[in-house]
Amino acid sequence: MSKKEYEIPSVPACPEELYTPEVQPGASESVRSYPAAAQHQEPLGFPGEIPDDWQDRALTRMEELLTRSRSLRVYLESCVRCGACTDKCHYYLGTGDPKNMPVARQDLMRDIYRRHFTPAGRNFPSLVRGRELTREVMDEWFTYFHQCSQCRRCSVYCPYGIDTAEISMAAREILDAAGFGQKYVNEILCKVHKIGNNLGLPGPALEDTLEGLEEDLKDDTGQDIKIPLDAQGADILLVTPSADFFAEPHVDGLMGYAKVFHQAGLSWTLSSYASEAGNFGMFIGNYEQMKKVAERIRKAAIDLGVKRIVVGECGHAWRVAYSFWNTLAGIGHGADEKDEYARALQAQLDPNYPVPQHICELTYDLMQQGVLKFDPTANDHIGLTFHDSCNVARASRMGDMPGGQMEIPRALLRASVRNFHDMADTTIGDATFCCGGGGGLLTDELLDIRIKGALPRVTALRDVMEDKGITHMAAICAICKAQFTKVLPYYDLPMDTVVSLHQMVGNALRLDKGEI
Amino acid sequence: MVTAIFAILFYAATAILLVGLGMRIALYARTPAPLSIPTTPAPTSRGGVAFRVATEVVLFNSLFRSNKWIWLLGWVFHAALLLVLLRHLRYFLEPVPQWVVLIQPFGLYAAFAMVAALAGLWFRRVAVDRVRYVSAPSDHLMLALLIAIGASGLAIKYLAPTDIAAVKAFFLGLMRFDWQPLPADPMLLIHLLLVVALMVIFPFSKLLHVAGVFFSPTRNQVDNPRERRRLAPWAAELERNNR
Question: Does the residue B49 lie in any domain?
Fold first, then answer.
């Protein structure tokens, strides 16, 4: 990889001093994703090249989406441009490019919507700023809708709950339909369909990798901790992001899950067919793709005959699993009597457990029941904080109570590490800042915006590092982990500052059989 | 002549407002929300969701978290507008209910507060570079229109009084399809003309946020996707065709 120089923003002393930058038009206009080639477009049903009638296709798709999705219609019509969201996006805070203000990003589509779909925009375009859908507009969409990580922070602060993620997903859907796909996400989707996971790791390689990890576990603990693959008739199917199989620190999290399952004596398995929790279909807003990817999990669950489905540490995957799986693939409870499709899987699932269940929920329940015991002194060399992943915090839940997605991971970390401190209130919980690499932006050509987008999080992290003796930050998302590992060094923080939550759990978990 | 013009204008404006807004609401209600997308933490029951939406509508609590100045100006404007509108009920109801009589003085203070809050919002729109950047001409015109309505109303009260008994007779007459003469005072006609304009613009403009706030899926959905399968009609059809 080329040693490109990036402009690193200066980090303020504390989050209160993270001032909103002045508007600097065009500041990040040159940061662009690579366009998808035909080989990554056509298998997904998108045009391989930009067709002559791209404008018709784009507008047709837009019209279709408007009838399919209430959120799109309502959000395009309800904004009053009050400005409440303008200082909430990490990419705006990092770049000062006004098109990274949520409202301005939405307006890239709203102006087109008005011009082509409303009487006000058709008749008085200059008054309401209606804009013709031209090639320039498409290029601008391609740039700025790929500078949105769909983290939903803006939607928390909008008086109408307008969610820029909904708009940016629709925009990418329209871009794809008109032949303007993004390479990173579409290439990965092709890999999932062909090989079964985002990293393109084939079954035999996966088997090898897992055997290696079992040996590592044996060396570390002296115990035979298994990581089963394709174990027919296991109780639990674990679906986890494929980065957990070899990326650092992800893999330490996977070994943590294995220790939990081992210590609790649970019967579990991974699947080589559904070896990916991630679902990049969400990033391009494409329901059909999302469904197709989710149905791999359904098929694996049915084929293996499992009773429970547990999801590993991954933010957007947990959003899709928790919020969408039931809809997309009937993975959940509460199907209608006549809903044969959903009933087929439900009949086999254990009604005593939520489906899907987050690995943190599973570990937490076992801890509450006293099945797992922790020795937090094992992590005494660590001072820890926790990064709430955007999709977990603002688009899902854990446990029975609203907000469990914030409390359960923290309960696990507090049990595992004695020196635990949260970062500033305005940067955690449902106000959390995106890592800067989510939503299909975790690709090298976007590194500039990824570094700048991480500024708010880095500011809060450095603050607790200096004040509270924090040395590490736990995350529960494969993208967060990969992004921080890559980006923190640009801010002179070690790449191993970021750790997996279940890595901390695994360190502290007591594996001494005799006592339990 | 003036009476006839304004009578027709008000009939037309009312029809456009009601039909236009009704069609928007019907469209929002008809369009499916295919996926569960509440911004979490979200309520897990219908009652909880009703409370959440109510606090948004009454207190603007997301906006409060977001920006205290916009909240203050925005909330004062809306609350004052509500009082002013309620105060105006006396022109449409005979006999005038006791509570409408009681709020008359408050409605008057509210008119000042409303114009002041609008001026504050306009100042922000011009002074804050981020808000200036996102503002379209229509955003400025909307504020100008609302301020002009408030100012002309206050002018009728304090500078150029009109025969309000006759104004009331005109509106009661409109409602009973028995037209009564409208006083031809310029300030009154300006005030009424601007109100007509606002009513006509309403269903075609950002004022649709009034309906939108009730239909926003991130706010009005129950957080229960693991317990209930949500399936939009088009998604169900997709599922049938796939198998």
Answer: yes
Domain boundaries, chain A: 47-180, 198-360, 364-515
What integer pLDDT is reported at residue A2 of this predicted model?
47
CATH number of the domain that B176 lies in? 1.20.950.20
Structural domains counted in chain B = 1
- Residue B85 within any structural domain of the chain: yes
Q: Is B43 on the interface with A (CB under 8 A)?
A: yes
Q: Which residue in B216, B224, B242, B243 has the most chain A C-beta atoms within 10 A of its own C-beta, making it the best mutation to test that interface?
A: B216
Nearest CA-CA distance, residue B17 and chain A, Å:
15
Residues of A in contact with B209 (CB under 8 A): 77-80, 160
Average pLDDT over residues B104-123: 96
Residue type, A102: P
For the record, the structure tokens of A157 come out as: 């602060």
Residue A18: predicted pLDDT:
86
Question: Which DSSP symbol is given to A483?
Answer: H
DSSP-assigned states of every residue in A9-49: PPPPSSGGG-PPPPP-TTTTTT--PPBPPHHHHGGGTS-SS
Q: Which of residues 421-450 of A touch B (CB under 8 A)?
A: 430
User: What DSSP string describes A198-252?
Assistant: TT---HHHHHHHHHHHHHHHHHHHSS-----BS-TT-SEEEE--GGGGTSTTHHH
What architecture (CATH level 2) is domain A47-180?
Orthogonal Bundle (1.10)
Say whether residue B52 is in contact with chain A using an 8 A CB cutoff.
no
Give me the pLDDT at residue A1, please.
Answer: 45
What pLDDT sits at residue A17? 85
Q: Judge contact between A304 and A233, C-beta under 8 A.
A: yes
Mean pLDDT of chain B: 97
Decide if A326 touches B, using CB distance below 8 A: yes
pLDDT digits (tens, 9 = 90+) for B211-233: 999 999 999 999 999 999 999 99
* Encoded amino acid at A481, one letter: K
Report pLDDT for A516. 43
- Residue B241 placed within a domain: no
B208/chain A closest Cα distance in angstroms: 6
pLDDT at residue A19, rounded to an integer: 87
Chain B: residue nearest A309 by CA? B226
Q: Which amino acid is at A450?
A: R
- Which chain A residues in 111-140 lie under 8 Å from chain B, judged by CB atoms? 118-120, 126-129
**CB of A230 within 8 A of CB of A238?**
no
Q: Which residues, numbered 281 to 310 in chain A, qualify as contacts with chain B under a Cβ-Cβ cut-off of 8 Å?
A: 287-288, 291
**What are the helix and strand counts (H, E) for chain B?**
13, 0
Q: What is the pLDDT of residue A513?
A: 59
Cβ-nearest to B205 among A23, A120, A163: A120
pLDDT tens track for A375-420: 999 999 999 999 999 999 999 999 999 999 999 999 999 999 999 9
Q: How far apart (Å, rounded) are the C-alpha atoms in residues A177 and A169?
A: 12
Task: Mark yes or no for CB contact B134/A81 under 8 Å.
Answer: yes
Domain assignment present for B228: no
d(CA A337, CA B94): 55
Cross-chain Cβ contact A70/B31 below 8 Å:
yes
Interface membership of B209 toward A (CB under 8 Å)? yes
From chain A, pick out residues whose CB is under 8 angstroms from the CB of B66: 84-85, 88, 157-159
Instruction: Inform me whether the C-beta atom of residue B39 falls under 8 Å from chain A C-beta atoms.
Output: yes
Residue A495 touches partner B, C-beta closer than 8 Å: no
B242 Cα to chain A: minimum distance (Å)? 10
Q: Please report the pLDDT score of residue B133 as a whole number.
A: 97
Can you give the residue range of the structural domain that contains B107? 2-29+40-223
The pLDDT tens digits for B71-90 are 999 999 999 999 999 999 99
Residue pLDDT, tens place only, B170-206 = 999 999 999 999 999 999 999 999 999 999 999 999 9
> Which residues of chain A register pLDDT less than 70?
1-4, 513-516
